[in-house]
Amino acid sequence: MATQHRRTIARQRKEGSSRLSLGRAGHAASAAYLPLPPTIQCNGSGCTVENYQRIWADRKPCKAAQALYPTSEGELFQVVALASRTGSKVKVVGSSHSYSKLVCPGGDDGLIISTQHLNSLIHVNLSSLTVTAHAGVQLRDLIVRLAEFGLTLPHSPVWHGVSIAGMISTGAHGSGMWHRGGSPHDYVVGMRLIVPADEEEGFAKIIDLREQDADLNAARLSLGVLGAISQVTFQLEPMFKRSASLEIREDTQLDGDGIVDFAKGHEFGEICWYPFSGKALFKVSDRMDAGAVGDGAYNMAILDRLGVDFIESMRHGLEAAEESRSLSELCQEEKKTMKLRQSSGDGLVNFGNTFIGYPVVGLNHKMQTSGGCEKEEELPPIVTPTRIDFNPSHEHQTDTENDFVDQVVHSPPQTDKLETCLWNPTIKYGFFFFHTAISIPISRAADAIAEIKRLRDLNPESMCSLAYSGGIWIRFLAASEAYLAVPTESIMFEFMYYRARDPFTPRLHQDLFEEIEQILVNKYGGKPHWGKNRNLAFGNMHTRTVHVAKFLDVRQRFDPSSLFSNEWTDAILGIKSSSPQDVQTFQDHCALEGLCVCKEDSHCHPARGYFCRPGLAYKDARVCRYEKPESSNLPLLSFRGIA
Hints:
Elements: H1 2-15, E1 32-33, E2 40-43, E3 46-49, E4 62-64, E5 66-68, H2 73-86, E6 90-93, E7 111-114, E8 122-125, E9 130-134, H3 139-148, E10 151-152, H4 164-169, E11 188-196, E12 204-210, H5 216-219, E13 228-235, E14 237-238, E15 241-250, H6 258-265, E16 270-274, E17 279-288, E18 297-298, E19 306-307, H7 308-324, H8 328-344, E20 348-349, E21 360-363, H9 364-367, E22 382-386, E23 404-408, E24 418-420, E25 433-441, H10 445-458, H11 464-467, E26 472-477, E27 490-498, H12 510-523, E28 527-528, H13 541-544, H14 548-558, H15 567-573, E29 610-614, E30 622-626
Parallel strand pairs: 1-24, 5-7, 6-7
Antiparallel strand pairs: 2-3, 3-4, 8-9, 9-13, 10-14, 11-12, 11-13, 15-17, 15-21, 16-17, 16-26, 18-20, 19-24, 22-23, 25-27, 25-28, 26-27, 29-30
Helix pairs in contact: 10-12
């Protein structure tokens, strides 16, 4: 079956098919590696920080005066003290794999602290079954190290190329409601933070939190506004194995108590729902003893290196559908795509790189997360020293004597065959997308699913847009004690969809995605994932977050001058205003990018036939819907000429 899968990929890439999906691999033979661009870039006039797609939700840059790269807790202390002494805004940046502007210092004169080189500590305590690690340690390195001691972190996000501090600070998660649940921040039992302080204390101080400290519930998931995390301590478990199988089922099994029964019946279960086909791909995943037979792994294709030509063919396929205003080809391919994912293992392998059948059984750290595209193993990073600037004016310094290091990006190899990450923003026709992830209480899940089905039945073809990126991904979360996390057992709905390079270009079936967002957020009290989502999803978050007052009390004590906060975190936490409009920007075409929920036609694009209208299933929604004029002189939408 794996051979058949590879042949299918080869045929489609040769044909330049527009029907490729994220469930299929696309390796180029003997290809060179195209590295991801650096998250932080500096020149003589200052620095910028970018997210993994290089473009923030509002498409405005994040600027700072300096970027500093501490390699130890002592150096991190010096940087925080510098910010405190000079009154500078400061933000800590890990992999910057979040969509929203959590890592942007306020204004252009702030400081950026990179944890890229704060990664030398991984201390395993066998008696307490804990590990303490530096903030910048990568998840992939942590879980491999733990396995050497026969230990494991039970849950993690599916992408292993994140720093551990960034992972917990944004609420990144896996799937599961058993025990402590699927969120790594709920396994944090200790933390050391460096926070601003008075001159008598050296302008900074260390706060050492343990599990019995109530303030740890703020620090576990902090959005980076409490201070700079130095070390994190996780509670571990003895190594175990997972067993995983993929099953195609009718989506009627999501109705009633079906979704709850599945979540409670499988410790690591998750679902990819294809609404147009009325089917779902259930990942049945359970714990097994470490001695169970099997050496399987999870090598998710879209997180491994992909051929640049393959990535571009995917983008061209989406652009062709947008330009033709037809999803008929995608609809025809949806069931085939689902079956191919199931029959090929969809990244699950029994041994080596081979899939031979279900169940796939393997050690937890090999089955829980995936990646590979983000790191070039063959070439070590090239580093050059820079210095920490203690000059309050933040004037650019050119001498290179001191302790902090910055990474120099080498030029990509000159070759026609390249491999890289799916989202590499340096690819002209790369995969550029919106990413929505919203959780609701699982007690309301069946009603929300029924609402989305009603929307599907009113316009079935529009749902085929979801199939191209894997359908609606459903995962499960346990109730958490972290103040900014979900307080009840919850279900996370997640999906990706096309984003135009031109911010003023409407999307085909734009109203579908807007209505689903508003169904989940407004009708069912949903909470957006802190590190994903478009701006509109964060309206009135301070009233939808049960323990926000407790969190803000800790923030005030740890950082009374708000040096680690910015306009975005103030808005989503309701610090300076109680208005839900603070996170929205109302201007012409603002709804096209999710900067606002439309109130009038100009927020959509009436010149191209998109008007602000009520939702189809959820009438209180306000969405940008295309209305074909009787005789239209509207310009044709064109994408391929847009860089």
